[in-house]
């Protein structure tokens, strides 16, 4: 005879069953794994190297906490968008290597997001430099 009561199943994602501090500790570990995976991408490595230079420079260049936050935030935002773009590309590549119009569109949109974040960052830094030295 078949037992009509469902048995507990092991969740596909163990993180979903964790709570409190245990969940936070594991989530932090996954975040570090994501940063390590991002480090394998050339563009992300270049942005991290730029951030190592630009973040301290933001404290020197910025006049007040608002400008420092804007300068530093634009650099960090660029790295965030790069990681998201890499995540999109990785997910698309997992689906399959064959060319598909929707896959291309998703990858192109991720690339466009990186471009916009880069232009925003460059614009903020150019304006700050102009304000500091040309005015």
Automatic annotation (TrEMBL):
Designated name of the protein: Diacylglycerol kinase
Positions of ATP binding: 23, 30, 41, 89, 98-100, 107-108
Membrane topology per record: Multi-pass membrane protein
Subcellular location: Cell inner membrane
Record CDD domains: DAGK_IM (cd14264)
Family the UniProt entry places it in: Belongs to the bacterial diacylglycerol kinase family.
GO cellular component, one term: plasma membrane
Catalytic activity, reaction form: a 1,2-diacyl-sn-glycerol + ATP = a 1,2-diacyl-sn-glycero-3-phosphate + ADP + H(+)
Species for this entry: Hylemonella gracilis
EC category: transferase
A biological-process GO annotation: phosphatidic acid biosynthetic process
Keywords: ATP-binding, Cell inner membrane, Cell membrane, Kinase, Lipid biosynthesis, Lipid metabolism, Magnesium, Membrane, Metal-binding, Nucleotide-binding, Phospholipid biosynthesis, Phospholipid metabolism, Transferase, Transmembrane, Transmembrane helix
Chain sites annotated for binding a divalent metal cation: 41, 89
Active site: 82 (proton acceptor)
Residue sites binding substrate per the record: 23, 36-39, 43-47, 82, 111, 125-130
Cofactor note: Mn(2+), Zn(2+), Cd(2+) and Co(2+) support activity to lesser extents.
Cofactor requirements of the protein: Mg(2+)
GO MF: ATP binding; ATP-dependent diacylglycerol kinase activity; metal ion binding
Positions of transmembrane segments: 44-62, 68-88, 109-130
Role of this protein: Catalyzes the ATP-dependent phosphorylation of sn-l,2-diacylglycerol (DAG) to phosphatidic acid. Involved in the recycling of diacylglycerol produced as a by-product during membrane-derived oligosaccharide (MDO) biosynthesis.
EC number: 2.7.1.107
A Pfam family per the record: DAGK_prokar
């Amino acid at each position: 005879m078949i037992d009509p009561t469902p048995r507990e199943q092991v969740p596909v994602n163990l993180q979903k069953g964790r709570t409190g501090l245990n969940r936070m500790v594991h989530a932090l570990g996954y975040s570090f794994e994501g940063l390590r995976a991002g480090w394998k991408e050339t563009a992300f490595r270049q942005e991290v190297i730029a951030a190592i230079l630009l973040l301290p420079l933001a404290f020197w260049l910025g006049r007040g906490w608002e400008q420092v936050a804007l300068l530093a935030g634009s650099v960090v935002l660029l790295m965030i968008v790069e990681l998201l773009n890499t995540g999109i590309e990785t997910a698309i590549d997992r689906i399959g290597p064959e060319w598909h119009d929707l896959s291309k569109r998703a990858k192109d949109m991720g690339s466009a997001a990186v471009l916009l974040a880069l232009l925003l960052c460059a614009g903020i830094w150019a304006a700050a430099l102009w304000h500091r030295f040309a005015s």
